[in-house]
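Quick question: what would this complex look like in 3D?
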Amino acid sequence: MPLMVGIVSYGSYVPFRRLKRAAIAQTLGIPAGKGERAVASFDEDSVSMAVEATRDTLRTAAGANIGALLFATTTPPYAEKLNAAIVGAAGRLPLEIRAADLTGSVRAGMSALLQAGDAARGGTTALVAMADCRLAAPEGKSEQSGGDGAAAFVVGSEGVIAEIEATASVTREYLDTWRMPGERFAHGWEERFALTQAQAPLLGKAIQNVLAHAEVAPSALTKVILDVPNPRAVDEVARAMKLEPAQLADPLALTVGQTGAAHAGLLLANVLSAAKPGDRVLVAVVADGADALLLRVTDAAAAYRQPRSVGRLIESKGDVAYASYLKWREILPTEPPRRPDPERPAGPPMFRSQTWKFGFVGSRCTACGTPQLPPQRVCVHCGARDETEPYPFADRRAKIATFTLDRLAFSLNPPTVNVVVDYDGGGRFLCEMTDCEPEKVAIGDEVEMTFRRMYTAGGVHNYFWKVRPKR
Amino acid sequence: MASNGIKDRVAIVGMGCTQFGEHWDKGPDDLLIDAAYQAYESAGIDRKDVDAYWLGTMGQLSGLTLSIPLKIPYKPVTHVENYCATGSEALRQACYAVASGAYDIAMAIGVEKLKDSGFSGLVVSDPPNDGTLGNMTAPASFSLLAPAYFKKYGLDPDKGKDVLSRIAWKNHRNGAKNPKAQFRKEVPLEQIKASPKVADPLGIMDCSGVSDGSAAAIVVRAEDAHKFTRDPIFIKALSFVAGPGEGPLAQDYDFTTFREVVASAEDAYHQAGVTDPRTQISMAEVHDCFTPTELVLYEDLGFSARGTAWKDVLDGFFDLEGSLPVNPDGGLKSFGHPIGASGLRMMYEMWLQLRGEAGPRQIKDPTLGLTHNLGGMPGRCVSFVSIVGR
């Protein structure tokens, strides 16, 4: 009997900021689309968002022995340097793991899930993180329909909440969407070509195969997730399968937008948060071929809780002006400030402080019990030297002790909010606050930690932690 | 605490100070030469008479920065730095050198040439690091004091802003009487209060000026002072504290005080035998890099009881005509803050005041003057306090 493998836990991340489609239309003088799209903040990218989703899934996968990490994105911050290693460092994954970046197509998220299933069947529990911060040219369709976001899954054989019943894939070479290294915006062939020749037929074939393999009829599917760029392809496939409208999963088009390689996973996380034992979920994505995955929700799912659901993240939001979005994505170049460019962070210091910088692990003095961060060899309270143990702070809540709004420091989203925060249980930190309204910041506000890209200098992305109001 | 003090063992017998401001036409060499020669002349000595030098500057390295432009003939020149307390650090070292007997005549000189960088505000570069240090500007880091102080002592934001603005107003009013200050115009209170925000709640008028300048002092042992001038001033106390940086690490630091200032003031008062600073200190130059700094310093230096300095400010207690004039020369705010020179510029005002040479700023019969110089940020700083007198 083959090993039963599947999803053990899941997590998701939808950025705080929303760009109303009407705001795009108003500035550009084009017809307004409905709803809004999620926009990654100026201090976010696919790696930082993947970290948020990864932390979420790990929080609900206690005791999982991760042996592989797969990071999927079409917008890797590094073209050559293992982006997955950064996600692993922030997720505090063990040293002895297999890791890979999967990129090049929005299909990569599903590819990662399928490969994770294969790894799990071989006895290796895998963590899949998928994220995208897709750049689209102003006035185009993708700018309106796109979104930024992330999802993450632990795939294994113990504590499975959604079993992988069957998978199917097709891979076909055709010209629909393409982008060369160094190009910011993707090109697209006329939509009707891919719609009629590729999307509908390839999707149909993959779905047909996966259902045949599992001997499951379309009518037995509780939810069907179809991640396709063109809604017409969804209509066609749904008609062919004779699906009821209720079976089609919300594509989050009006609330988040299409989040590239993360989208199928994000929709899946959303579906799983409302799923019941026995439900069957079909996930399919089409891009340069198609992948289909059939899941059956297990009895163990009844006891599983992911408090930070996609729905909750969607509701926690604040607007961003179109002009700000253009500046954040550096589509609109702006006058540089009269401040020096930041220096690139140095390799050896980052290597020495990895668990602090990426993992946000401070120290606790074992002589007097005082937690402190950054980790200290000499205790700030009692002066004991080298009597410490690691003390993770990333999941701890804190309150603001004092703050200021720095309008002199360079920022793509001025003013920079600087806060001193005091953690429940001890420890204090001076840092930036993000995803907030500066005028509303007050002493006593509750905050939580978030992993961000502070800046990029000398071709090196400088990642670290900020606080944000509780979401 | 084994800080024995050198009360009345060292005297300042000559001082020099350039005008502070935007000296586009002068480099650091020019400023050093100007201040040094003013000091030599003030003490009635020649360049060759000085036995040892202490040079305070953040922007340049090595004693060569002084010895080369002045063509100092093979004498010791030590470069010192301690953030914005650099100038006082140079003075402190020169004093200990002559007190020890190692040298007879020493010069402490400070200089900074900030206007060549082209940047807005102060910029400090860090050595190669892991990118987690943050890029908080100077106004932002001192601005952290304001919400904490206002909340602790029940000042609503508007009243708090009134207090801060009153401090800036006082310092500009004093600077208007000072030909060497960078800014020499009185500024109306409303204009200060409404100035564009730099680091909320601080506006541009809550911040000291970025400035070029240099200042110097000649120090000798007390018993030799009469050879140089009829009116030397005597060091009663020199204290310095570098904090352990608890502020950003420990929850019990509440951003309404500088523990380092409290410790250095306590040591200085002990060295000088001062028991009630509010009545025994005649005048003070304190580190008003930003207005909330000066507010907090009044309490840390013991001029006001905890939580009451804001009332003393509004009462005019620290005005030029008040009971304890603070920053009679205009302070960092209107004199300007060329980092390496500031500590010595503070001493320059004490020198003028104690010798009756402060002109329109003259305080009546001062006995003890205090200078306070600070570097770093609230919760993580260095603090220097000196007490001088006749």
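Answer marked as accepted. Chain A touches chain B through 51 residues (CB under 8 Å).
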